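Reopening this one. Same input as before:
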Amino acid sequence: MKTFRQIMLFFDRTTLAIAVLIAAAIIFIITMSVISTKTGGENSALKTQLAEIKSLAEGALELKGVVEAKEKKTGLNKAAAVVPTLEQILKSLGMKATVIRPSAKNKVKEFAEEDAELEIQNIDLNSIVNLLFKIDNSPVPMKIKNTSLKTTFENPDKFILKLTVSLISKG
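Same output, byte for byte:
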């Protein structure tokens, strides 16, 4: 009888140990699958955030390039004044101004704005367009504040152009 008891106890211990190991394995597998699912969700959320950050970084780099280009453009004109700049633009187009004089200087935050009045008589429309294009695309930042255009009495194809142009620089 002792041997039967020993066999049963041994069998029960072995079965019990196997059952405990199987239960532990099942608990481990379920825990790992829950953690894996949760981690997978977090991983996909982080991937979408990373994609958003990359697109924002590209936009920031483009904006940085634009800002650096504008800063470089404003850095070129520290010694330049508005009148010599306008004279140079007119000379490159083969025009002469009747009146060209500086008018006002304004300071806005870290920038300085210097105005000049420009008057050209007997100018045609093509020359006006070329002048405005040159002012707009000059290597120094300039803006046109006021424009006045009148026809001449003698020749209706010729005009009198009056401009107020500002040169923007770091002040």
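So the earlier flakiness isn't reproducible anymore. For the record, The chain has two domains: 1-75, 82-170.
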